[in-house]
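Appendix B, record 7
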Amino acid sequence: MDRDRTHGIGKGTLIVLLFGYWKILVAVAVAGFLFWIMIPRSLFSDPLSTVVYDRNETLLGARIAADGQWRFPWEDSLPPKYKQALIQYEDRHFYAHPGIYPPSILRALYQNIRQGKVVSGGSTLTMQVMRMARKDRDRNILQKIIESVLAVRLELTASKDEILLAYASNAPFGGNVVGLEAASWRYFGTGPHNLSWAESALLAVLPNAPSLIHPGRNREQLKEKRDRLLRNLYAEGIIDSLTCEMASKEPVPGQPLPLPDHAAHLTDHFLMRDPGKKIRTTLRADLQTGVVELVEIHHRKLSRNQVHNLACLVMEVESGNVLAYVGNTRPEGNAFHENHVDVIRAARSTGSILKPFLFAAMLDRGLILPGTLVPDIPLQYDGYSPKNYERGYEGAVPAYQALERSLNVPSVVMLEKYGVQLFLGLLNNLGFTTFDKTSSHYGLSLILGG
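Structure tokens (predicted):
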């Protein structure tokens, strides 16, 4: 009897223990699941600037993001100088730790207690990425713990280089400048991969206190921080003494520079079509700036005759690539001449440029020969009476002369013979995209740009 009671108690105890272990396993599984899903697929969803480059990654123009920030789309890689400067300044153990570095946290805690205020955060670069992703959170111990947990989680799925890119693309650089790419162009007028050691070091220290050491204010403090980092880079053997000395003599930037705007109408086009994207075009920046100036030279002359709108498109014959794109002239002070209109893309009358297409199509179909006589006489088509530019008539002219002299009446006669609907279909097949009405809408005046 005692054996049965003991045996029964043993079974009950075993059941209780199994039930307890089961609850622990479920709790661990739930905790693990929550730990894994606590980071969204996309850490940053802020609106981005629309940025247009030439074929060699030279900035042609940019439009500010929807939230009023200069925040360029992420780059594929970071320049080596900036990467080394950033790690040396912010997180020397970046490649060794799993997202948090306890010695730095303990050192920061000791310094803050000793000073009686927050003088050091002890955050790794990974923790800073999580702080930026979580936006305007309070800076307290609880939030620091949460950032630490999230940082460890981020390190499990993102590479170190991806974390560096996330930091560099979203760090604040003073005012409304966010991210390395925008800061590089705003403060130095060049891309990140062209930065010197002094420039790279300055941009490495700037996010540490962007409101305090914004370029243009507290410049001596900014220079002191930059030069201290340069000395650290020298002490670590990353740069030599001459580089350190020369870099320390470089001045810090003043007020932010205006961004290039060499292809205003093309940039506006991409803003409407692909907002928030980085667009690499086939344009050549040197040729683009030259063509812009050439258009302005002609504009100054033609404006005396009240001609205020010009455009120029330069294309490479072999490839069809666009090398320069000037959609209109620059605005003239407060005068309004609709300079914002992109003349290159604006739908307008074709004039006489369709006549060669009609001539070639009729030759191809055997409807005419170059010497075929075409009537050039007064005609009426349901109230429509085409006229030649010089208001005269030849009676009959060879087809090739009608084309050479751009005579209107023979061209209308030829279009009537070929057929408006058939010609309109030919134009659409050739790539004309603005003929979006039926043939009855255009009629025979189509060949004259009507």
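Remarks on this record: The CA atoms of residues 215 and 254 lie 5 Å apart. Confidence is low (pLDDT under 50) at residues 1-8, 33-37.
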